[in-house]
Specification:
Elements: E1 14-22, E2 33-37, E3 43-48, E4 54-60, E5 63-69, E6 77-83, E7 88-95, E8 112-116, E9 122-126, E10 134-135, E11 138-139, E12 142-143, E13 163-164, E14 170-174, H1 180-190, H2 202-207, E15 222-230, E16 238-246, E17 257-264, H3 275-288, E18 294-300, E19 304-312, H4 316-324, H5 334-347, E20 354-361, H6 372-383, E21 388-393, H7 401-410, E22 413-417, H8 421-430, H9 432-436, E23 438-449, E24 454-460, E25 480-483, E26 487-496, E27 521-530, E28 538-545, H10 554-570, H11 580-589, H12 598-612
Parallel strand pairs: 1-7, 17-18, 17-20, 20-21, 21-22
Antiparallel strand pairs: 1-4, 2-3, 2-5, 5-6, 8-9, 9-12, 10-11, 13-24, 14-23, 15-16, 16-26, 18-19, 23-25, 23-27, 24-26, 27-28
Helix pairs in contact: 3-4, 3-8, 5-6, 6-7, 10-11, 11-12
């Protein structure tokens, strides 16, 4: 075998790259000198790490090499490795500060060893390298202590109240196509636990399902469907369904994708339902890629690094092999990873294409920019580059739902939770282009109710998507996106205009009178949206009377059942006569053809929840 030489201009050239990381702090080391040498120690090429601690050597012939790092203040590092033809080897190099020597591992070949901390407690330790971590007689490892407490995080939901139409005739909100709450709730119930109340976002339970509303036929990229019926949990009220159906596009109509997989490989991702499931999930997506699509892979733990340069979708084996190299260990520098992922997405930007970062994580960021405010401001800045964001949540115990939902909302994105491989199939196979390709952004809905027909109303869910009435006409205000083939459903519980039901009120105004115009309209529905790369919104306005409303359908029954389910899980003050039996009845009546079995699964989930609730 050749023992390491440079090979300029060869079609079979190999590459070695990596990230230099401080072992103690988990942060990347900038400006560290890195030398690649042959096995005799002869230096072939030298470089320095960039601001992310990243280095790269290109145009190498297959053979045996040494990587040497001699950086002031750190122990010298040396690693022997072999390169095959056209191989793209990724390394993570951990340097130990001088005077703080790292214990040598007794068995450098093992993936796991036993060490003891200062109190003589045994600590589970895993090596974390893309290739063997041995060299110069030493190997480095993370100390990864088991966490026995639950640190899952969910934002408080202040449930929407009834509003009187004479005082608040306008209801304004952003659409939401996220589905994470449903699969996360399913995870709890599958494990025989009732979910936390604030883990239950009712709009995401409802929007998990495909309602197959009518396809749009006009100039706009989505259609609207309206239905009105008796409210199942309060027979004196009505339930209004508003359905929006995005245009379904076939693969040939979807422009080229420039995707960056941003993968959390920190120590918290080592569980089977985290990084291993993540790899399996992304391989489903990789199988769907077309030659014109491109994928880069960025990982982050204590620091961020590029594992795979932007690669054509035809090289599926190469992309999958890069995923297979990943192992978990270390702290979580999410901010550095996001910065690097957006940088790479921008470098490979496809004009009029689908440019998107896909962040896969448990959300447990703890190094560098990690607060919600810091991360949100970072994402807000990045979205102006025309790069969309998809966030995929994994795992349990330390799951940070609150952080991930906020980031997806700020980043012109969507958010899903993958609790099993079938959920990955749903997202990356059955709903691929809805997940990846946006057909309209900043979609806002504003409804003006007629006080002669509606006494009061309550929007069910969407608490964190509410907008001020002035935001509807403000094109600088961010709102939700809708993907190809996605449907969005919103429900209003309505108190009819003729109802004698008492409501909370204020004293009459001294300087204003409320004048009501006579009209047979129930409401005026307005929708604003922008094209995916647009800056000015388009307006759709329609006046709606009761004669325009459709009959109760299977879709109506399914959405009503899911609303009941959510209110019961949250123990809502508005649940009225809702019961699991009634939710099951509605779900069974709404089962329909159920091509993929999701509605049948939901019925089983309801029956299990009923038993757990006793």
């Amino acid at each position: 075998m050749v023992t390491g030489a440079l090979l300029i201009g060869s079609l079979h050239a190999a590459t070695v790259s990596g990230t230099i990381i401080d072992l103690a702090s988990g942060t990347s080391i900038a400006n560290a000198p890195v030398v690649i040498a042959n096995t005799n120690g002869l230096s072939l090429k030298m470089t320095q790490t960039d601001s992310f601690g990243y280095f790269e050597f290109k145009e190498l012939i297959a053979g045996d090499y040494l990587i040497k790092v001699n950086h002031q203040g750190y122990e010298d590092y040396e690693l022997a490795f072999a390169l095959a033809e056209e191989e793209n080897k990724q390394l993570f190099v951990y340097l130990s500060v001088q005077q703080t020597l790292v214990d040598q591992l007794l068995n450098t070949e093992a993936d796991e060893v036993e060490k003891y901390d200062g109190s003589k407690n045994k600590v589970s330790t895993k090596e974390y390298c893309a290739s063997p971590c041995s060299g110069a007689g030493r190997a480095y490892a993370y100390e990864e202590q088991a966490v026995d407490w639950n640190t899952e995080s969910y934002d408080y939901i202040n449930e929407n109240k009834f509003k009187t139409v004479t005082n608040d005739p306008l209801s304004t909100f952003s659409i939401d196509v996220d589905r994470a709450s449903y699969s996360n709730v399913r995870r709890f119930i599958t494990q025989n636990q009732m979910p936390y109340a604030d883990a239950v976002r009712i709009e995401e339970l409802i929007n998990y399902f495909d309602y197959s509303y009518k396809q749009p036929t006009g100039e706009h990229p989505f259609s609207t469907t309206l239905e009105l019926g008796t409210c199942p949990w309060n027979k004196d009220h009505q339930l209004l369904l508003i359905g929006i159906q995005g245009k379904k596009m076939i693969s040939e109509e979807i422009p080229a994708n420039n995707l960056v997989f941003l993968i959390d490989v920190s120590g918290s991702m080592s569980d089977a339902n985290k990084l291993p499931l993540l790899k399996q999930s992304f391989k489903i997506l990789i199988d769907q890629l077309r030659p014109q699509d491109r994928v880069a892979i960025v990982v982050y733990a204590g620091a961020a690094g590029q594992v795979l340069a932007s690669t054509s979708g035809k090289d599926k084996a190469k992309i999958s092999a890069s995923l297979d190299l990943l192992e978990a260990g270390g702290s979580t520098a999410g901010g550095a990873g996001i910065n690097l992922a957006y940088k790479i997405a921008k470098e490979n930007y496809i004009p009029n294409g689908n440019n998107r970062v896909i962040l896969a994580t448990d959300g447990d960021f703890n190094v560098g920019a990690s607060s919600d405010g810091e991360m949100e401001r970072m994402i807000e800045q990045k979205r102006n580059d025309g790069i969309f964001l998809t966030i995929l949540g994994f795992g349990m115990g330390n799951y940070k739902d609150s952080k991930m939902e906020k980031l997806s909302n700020k980043g012109n994105g969507n958010y899903a939770y993958i609790d099993n491989i079938m959920e990955a199939k749903k997202i990356f196979s059955e709903e691929l282009w809805g997940t990846l390709f946006t057909i309209a952004k900043d979609v806002k809905i504003q409804i003006e109710f007629n006080p002669s027909k509606v006494k009061a109303y309550r929007l069910i869910g969407y608490e964190n998507r509410l907008l001020n009435k002035e935001d509807f006409n403000d094109d600088t205000k961010d709102a939700g996106e809708i993907g190809s083939g996605h449907s969005v459903t919103a429900l209003y519980e309505i108190i009819p205009g003729e109802s004698a039901e008492p409501l909370a009120s204020v004293d009459p105004l001294t300087y204003q009178d409320v004048n009501i115009r006579k009209s047979n309209d129930l409401m005026t529905l307005k929708i604003r949206y922008k094209a995916p790369n647009g800056t000015e919104s388009k307006l759709i306005t329609s006046k709606v009377s009761t004669s325009d409303l459709g009959n109760i359908s299977e879709n109506f029954k399914l959405a009503a059942s899911l609303a009941e389910f959510g209110m019961l899980l949250r123990n809502s003050e508005f649940k009225g006569t809702a019961s699991y039996d009634d939710a099951i009845r509605l779900a069974k009546e709404a089962k329909g053809s159920d091509t993929y079995g999701y509605r049948s699964e939901y019925i089983v989930l309801l029956e299990k929840t009923k038993l757990l609730s006793k």
